[in-house]
């Protein structure tokens, strides 16, 4: 029977993990005692420690708690710095993308205006940007077919 138990432990059976789990529990217990506040901090009416050894252990406990809080603060600060860096980079790239999109739209509009022709006094005239308004002022009528239809429908009303 003992041989079977030894074989199970050697092959990674349930008994093989017992020493590792015991060490893990011992390490966690040691960490908890290092970080946990002394018992006199948990009471409602705090009373000072009665001996020098208790005072030394309280100081050591406070020191380890302070180190823990410093480490947590450093981690939080690093996380905040990383988050703000990513947010700033994303904001900058978003602004650049929006500006590029606006430039593309403006260039497309300018190109379509430059390529557009309008019938004016029985001639096809190539319109430059702003020329549509100039043609309307000179002739007294809107040169674009859609604009003509819009003004005609307004006149009919």
UniProtKB/TrEMBL annotation:
Spans annotated as Disordered: 1-58, 104-157
Domain of life of the native organism: Bacteria
Compositional bias (Basic and acidic residues): 112-126
Name the record gives this protein: Uncharacterized protein
């Amino acid at each position: 029977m003992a041989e079977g138990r030894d074989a199970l432990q050697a092959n990674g059976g349930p008994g093989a993990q017992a020493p590792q789990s015991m060490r893990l529990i011992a390490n966690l217990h040691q960490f908890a005692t290092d970080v946990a506040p002394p018992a006199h901090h948990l009471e409602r009416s705090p009373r000072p420690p009665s001996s020098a050894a208790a005072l030394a252990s309280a100081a050591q406990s406070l020191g380890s708690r302070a180190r823990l809080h410093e480490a947590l603060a450093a981690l939080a600060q690093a996380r905040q710095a990383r988050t703000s860096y990513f947010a700033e980079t994303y904001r900058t790239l978003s602004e650049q993308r929006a500006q590029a999109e606006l430039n593309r739209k403006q260039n497309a509009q300018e190109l379509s205006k430059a390529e557009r022709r309008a019938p004016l006094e029985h001639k096809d005239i190539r319109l430059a940007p702003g020329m549509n308004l100039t043609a309307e002022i000179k002739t007294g009528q809107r040169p674009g077919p859609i604009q003509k239809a819009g003004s005609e429908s307004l006149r009919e009303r």
